[in-house]
Design a protein that fits this description.
The protein contains 16 helices and 15 strands. By secondary structure, the protein is an alpha/beta fold. The structure holds pyridoxal-5'-phosphate.
Length: 452
C-alpha cells in the first residue's frame, strides 16, 4: 500500500486528534498529511502545495523551513539538549531568553516563569496571582474573571476561563472561582458604543462577587479564537484602571498577539498599558519548539522573593534549554529582519485587499485587523443584521472553497449566527503573496456566492 494509505490507516487507529471531529477522523482519515514547507507554503504527501494563511495555529511567525532556527536547536541539543530548572539549576539559554523577553516587555515586567505552552502559562498566571494575594494576607482573593469569546487554552482552569461554550463545557469542571464576564467585546462595543465605560460588564461582576474575592481579570489584548475581536479604543486602559481601583491583577494573554503578530511587539503596546502578568507562548519560538512563559512585574516578584519555602509549581519542561535557544534565535531574527514593522506594512496590504472584497461582496462585512491578525464576518444581510442560517455553514463553506484552491484559513462558527473567518499569515510574507491570498479568497467568495 502507498505511504499515504499506511499513514492514514495508522492515524485513524492510533491518534486521537485535538479540536477535531473524531467520527469524521476515523471514517475518513487525516485531511492533510504534511511533509514539509518553505516560508508561507506547506507541502503534503499527495504533492499539493498550500498557502498557510493562518500560520498553522497563528504561531509560525517566521514561516516554515527556517534553517537558522533548526541550527539553533541542533547546536543546543548537541551541547545540552535538556537540563532542568527545578532545584535552582539553570542553563545559559534560559537565562538569556528571560533577559531578552523582559527587555522587550513594557514597564517593570521583569521576571519570567517558563512553561511549555499557552494553557500552562494561563494556569500558572492564575496560580501565581492567587499565591501573591495569599502571601499578602488576602486569603479570599481567588476568583478569575474572563471575557466571553476569550480563548485561554484547554488545561482545566484555562479551559474554564475560555468564554466559548463548546470549549468551556468540555473542561469537565464548574469551578466557581472562574467567572465569565458578559457580554463579550463586540457586544460591549455594539451595545455601548457611545458609553465611555466599555469595561462595565467586568465592573458589574466585581460588584456582584466582591473585589475582596477576585484575584485577577484575564483578557487577550485582541481576541483570537473567539473571532478576532479588536477591543474598542479606550477599553484596555479602562480595564487597567478598574483593576487598579479594586486591587485586582490584570493578566494579558499575549499567546497570539505576542512577538510581533499585531504590528507591535506585544498586543498591549497598542494601548500602552502594563499588565501585572503577561502570558506568552506560540510566536515566542514561531512553533519550532514548545515553549511558553508568564512574565510578572517586579512588585510581584519581590513578594515571591520573600517566600522562604519551595514554590510548589513547575513543569518538567519549564525553561527547556533547546526551546529557549530556539526562542532566543527567533527573537533575534524578528528584530534583525524588522518583522514587527513588516507585520504592519504587510498588514496594511492585507487590509487593503480585504476592503476591496468588502466593497465587492454584500455578504462580506465587518473586516478588522491589527498587523497580520485579521478577520471578517459573513452575513446574509449585514445592513439588517441578519446572519446566515447556521445549517448553511457559511464560514466553513468559504474556507472549504479556499482549501480547494490550496489556501488554508480558519472558520469560527461555534455559535448560531456566527460566521467569522480569520487570516493570519507568517510575518515574513511578501506583498505579492498577500495579493495571492486575496485573489484566492476573491475566487472562493465568488464560488460561495453562487451556492448561497
Ligand atoms: N491563549 C490564547 C490566546 C490562545 O490562542 C491559545 C491557543 O490557541 C492558548 C492560550 C493556549 O495555548 P496552547 O495551545 O499552547 O496551550
Amino acid at each position: 500500500q502507498s505511504l499515504r494509505n499506511e499513514l492514514s490507516n495508522l492515524d485513524r487507529k492510533h491518534v486521537l486528534h485535538p479540536s477535531t471531529n473524531p467520527k469524521n477522523q476515523v471514517d475518513h482519515g487525516p485531511k492533510i498529511i504534511f511533509t514539509g514547507g518553505d516560508g508561507i507554503y506547506l507541502n503534503d504527501i499527495d504533492g499539493n502545495t498550500y498557502i498557510d494563511g493562518v500560520s498553522m495555529l497563528w504561531n509560525v511567525n517566521l514561516g516554515h523551513g527556517n534553517k537558522e532556527l533548526a541550527e539553533a536547536s541542533y547546536k543546543q541539543m548537541v551541547e545540552a539538549a535538556y537540563t532542568t530548572t527545578f532545584y535552582g539549576y539553570v542553563n545559559e539559554a534560559t537565562v538569556r531568553l528571560a533577559e531578552k523577553i523582559t527587555s522587550l516587555t513594557p514597564g517593570d515586567l521583569n521576571t519570567v516563569f517558563f512553561t511549555s505552552g499557552g494553557s500552562e502559562s494561563n494556569d500558572t498566571a492564575f496560580k501565581l496571582s492567587r499565591f501573591y494575594w495569599q502571601l499578602r494576607g488576602y486569603k479570599e482573593k481567588k476568583k478569575i474573571i474572563s471575557l466571553r469569546r476569550g480563548y485561554h487554552g484547554v488545561t482545566v482552569a484555562a479551559q474554564r476561563a475560555t468564554g466559548i461554550d463548546a470549549y468551556r463545557n468540555f473542561s469537565g469542571s464548574t469551578d466557581p472561582d472562574i467567572v465569565n464576564a458578559k457580554p463579550h467585546l463586540t457586544e460591549c462595543e455594539l451595545g455601548d458604543k457611545n458609553h465611555p465605560e466599555y469595561e462595565g460588564c467586568i465592573r458589574d461582576i466585581i460588584e456582584k462577587e466582591g473585589a475582596d474575592k477576585i484575584a485577577a481579570v484575564i483578557v487577550e489584548p485582541i481576541q483570537g479564537a473567539g473571532g478576532v475581536h479588536v477591543p474598542p479604543e479606550e477599553y484596555l486602559q479602562a480595564v487597567r484602571k478598574l483593576c487598579d481601583e479594586n486591587n485586582i491583577h490584570l493578566i494579558a494573554d499575549e499567546v497570539i498577539c505576542g512577538f510581533g503578530r499585531t504590528g507591535k511587539m506585544f498586543g498591549v503596546d497598542h494601548w500602552e498599558i502594563v499588565p501585572d502578568f503577561m502570558s506568552v507562548a506560540k510566536g515566542i519560538t514561531s512553533g519550532y519548539a514548545q515553549l511558553g512563559g508568564v512574565v510578572m512585574t517586579e512588585k510581584i516578584r519581590d513578594e515571591f522573593a520573600q517566600y522562604d519555602a519551595m514554590l510548589a509549581h513547575g513543569f518538567t519542561y519549564s525553561g527547556h534549554p533547546t526551546a529557549c535557544a530556539v526562542g532566543l534565535k527567533n527573537i533575534e531574527i524578528i528584530e534583525r529582519d524588522g518583522l514587527v514593522e513588516r507585520a504592519n506594512t504587510m498588514g496594511r496590504e492585507l487590509d487593503k485587499g480585504l476592503k476591496y472584497l468588502e466593497d465587492k461582496y454584500t455578504f462580506f462585512t465587518n473586516r478588522r485587523s491589527r498587523g497580520l491578525l485579521a478577520g471578517f464576518d459573513l452575513m446574509k444581510d449585514p445592513e439588517a443584521n441578519i446572519p446566515f442560517d447556521h445549517s448553511a455553514r457559511a464560514a466553513g463553506n468559504l474556507v472549504d472553497e479556499c482549501y480547494n484552491r490550496k489556501l488554508l484559513i480558519r472558520p469560527f462558527d461555534f455559535e448560531p449566527g456566527m460566521n467569522i473567518v480569520a487570516i493570519a499569515p507568517p510575518l515574513t510574507i511578501s506583498k505579492n503573496e498577500v495579493e495571492k491570498i486575496i485573489h484566492i479568497v476573491d475566487d472562493s467568495l465568488t464560488a460561495f456566492s453562487k451556492k448561497i
